[in-house]
Write a structure and sequence with these properties.
single chain, alpha+beta, 5-stranded mixed sheet, 4-stranded antiparallel sheet
Length: 594
């Protein structure tokens, strides 16, 4: 009987396309000359930015192209390029830590270094952390408008160092990581060896001479087949669950990155993610039980998780996140060199053509099986890099050199902006970028799709970035306070009043038929220590110019939220609807029991 399949849990991650670069003047804060002008006409321009890397046959960037050298197609239709940026040609933009640029093209490149400690062997972690340290040391004095973040998968997302332009902070965090204990509970190689040992023991026990009248004889791959298949199925299910856990943390990070303006790069370090969980064990069973190959081949196809990884690449593209996977496994050794996989030296009967063969040969995974195992772990990394416009690093004895190749992408990309065509039936829009002139060996990399999100979805993602990445900013000089709690609408919960104070001078007023007026939208999310978040709450503050003398210098809006006892991080967004400026703040609060 085929094993029961357990799917790894993948969180439902919000994802969005950030408010992109708008044409010059589209975000001016001056009052319009005519009352007919509206907020939507000023800031609600749906511009899509596609970040493109062009390299020659040696992989070196081509840095002298212009907008005329590109064509962009959305769902097969040519669109007009309205915005163009050559990152290699521009001067470093002005950027204050925690601030927001005036336009998306002025945003710095945000590089998230994510070390999946949950899916990386101890020795590989030590080596790759040294390589990352060398990579960051090389960036120490380069500047270039790049901000770095360091996060780990433990297995949950753990932001070690929020975005900074000082690599020394990350170097200190990497040094600290080296001293942290690591558990072997999630070692994939250890799980594989244990499963192979279980299969081998079952096979060997079957072929031993009968020990008594109660054991008249056993035929491998017939009498033991349910047990062999069950072991492989459990291995596949566990591998799928582990990959799903890592993918969930990656999706959480990609979602948070999507709330930030400008291009984002995610350098993902691990020993790989299985595209077909258990493929190597099903193949192994097909080799030692040749008559069962059609059955094991069908199981291999059944466990194919390509759709899941395609979905995640769409998440990343929606958030304008380019993925650079780095395989920390380096050059892997053959299973034939692993003494723990060697079998005994007993003779084997005529079971499947193995007469006079030794189990040390029959039951040791073949070179073909080793290659399939590695290809299976690396295929998903290639997929994520190809679909998002990044590049993958495989089979490198010295990943530090390959990381330098990735770094060349950071300052040598083109950003092509265009107005998103309206009224599309399908949320995922396919993108194709072509060169109008191209030399032999040139390669073009870019994200293959995007999702156009509403203003509310963009605001929710920006708030999530403040909550998860500590990307707080307060150009509106807003203040957040907590009031006394009262019994909530449900038993065991309390109603927490969250006061948001906004300076009246920060609100942009626009003329209208009834006089000048302005609006500020306030939105709020609370997250508990268990990672659960409340639905986003919203309120709108409207100010009339005639009311200002009575209001005074500030206006306070109270948003009530029902919460159980415990510690919470409350993220508050304050957005001036006319200018598009926003403050994003996070404050901690503890609600006592009773």
């Amino acid at each position: 009987m085929a094993p029961t399949r357990r799917c790894g849990r993948l969180i439902a991650a919000l994802f969005t396309l950030p408010l992109a670069a708008v044409p010059a003047g589209a975000q001016r804060q001056e009052r319009p000359e005519t009352p007919a002008a509206t907020v939507a006409e000023q800031v609600n321009v749906s511009i899509v930015n596609i970040d493109v890397h062009v390299t020659n046959r040696r992989g070196r960037p081509i840095a002298d192209l212009t907008a005329a050298d590109f064509e962009v197609y959305e769902n097969g239709e040519l669109v007009e390029i309205t915005n163009f940026l050559n990152a290699a040609a521009r001067e470093e933009p002005e950027w204050s830590d925690g601030g927001e640029p005036e336009a998306d093209t002025d945003a710095p490149l945000m590089v998230a270094l994510y070390v999946d400690r949950y899916r990386t062997r101890h020795g590989n972690l030590l080596r790759i952390e040294d390589d990352l340290a060398s990579f960051l040391s090389a960036r120490r004095d380069q500047g270039g408008g790049i901000r770095f973040l360091l996060a780990t998968g433990d297995p949950e997302l753990n932001v070690r160092v929020p975005f900074t332009d000082d690599p020394r902070e990350l170097l200190g965090a990497l040094e600290q990581l080296r001293g942290e204990p690591r558990s072997g509970l999630h070692d994939d190689d250890l799980l594989r060896r244990r499963t192979l040992d279980e299969i081998r023991t079952t096979y060997e026990t079957c072929i031993q001479p009968p020990a008594s009248e109660f054991n008249p004889g056993c035929v491998p791959c017939v009498d033991t087949w349910p047990a062999l298949l069950g072991a492989a199925g459990q291995y596949a299910a566990e591998m799928q669950t582990r990959a799903g856990t890592s993918l969930a943390s990656l999706a959480e990070l990609a979602t948070a990155l999507g709330g930030l303006p400008g291009p984002k790069a995610l350098v993902y370090v691990s020993d790989g993610l299985p595209q077909r969980p258990g493929a190597d064990l099903f193949h192994y069973l097909g080799q030692i039980c040749a008559d069962r190959q059609s059955e094991t081949g069908a199981l291999d196809r059944e466990w194919d998780d390509t759709t899941r990884f395609n979905r995640f690449s769409s998440f990343s593209n929606a958030n304008r996140v380019t993925i650079y996977p780095v395989d920390a496994g380096g050059v892997r050794a053959s299973s034939a060199t692993d003494p723990t996989l060697a079998g005994p030296v007993s003779e084997v009967g005529d079971f499947g053509g193995t007469r006079d063969s030794r189990l040390s040969t029959v039951l040791v995974p073949s070179t073909e099986n080793d290659r399939l195992r590695v290809d299976n772990l690396q295929a998903t990394l290639s997929l994520l890099a190809d679909e998002t416009g990044g590049r993958a690093v495989f089979n490198q004895p010295n990943p530090a050199e390959a990381l330098e190749g990735i770094a060349s992408d950071f300052g040598s990309y083109y950003s092509l902006g265009y107005r998103a065509p309206p009224d599309r039936r399908h949320p995922i829009r396919q993108v194709e970028v072509r060169l109008t002139r191209q030399a032999k060996g040139w390669q073009v990399r870019y994200r293959r799709s995007y999702i156009l999100k509403s203003a509310d979805q963009r605001l929710a993602d920006r708030l999530f970035a403040a909550l998860k990445l500590d990307e707080q900013t307060n150009p509106l000089a807003a203040e957040v306070t907590f009031g006394e709690t009262s019994p909530g609408t449900e038993p065991g919960r309390r109603t927490l009043p969250v006061g948001v104070r906004v300076p009246v001078s920060a609100v942009t007023l626009l003329p209208g038929p009834s006089g000048a007026s302005g609006a500020v939208r306030i939105f709020l999310v609370a997250e508990g220590e268990d990672g659960r978040r409340t639905p986003m709450r919203q309120k709108t503050l409207t100010l009339m110019e005639a009311e200002l003398p009575e209001i005074g210098q500030t206006k306070t809006v109270v948003v009530n939220v029902d919460l159980p006892p415990g510690r919470f991080s409350v993220a508050v967004g304050v957005r001036d609807e006319a200018s598009g400026r926003g403050s994003y703040l996070v404050r901690d609060v503890e609600l006592p029991a009773g």
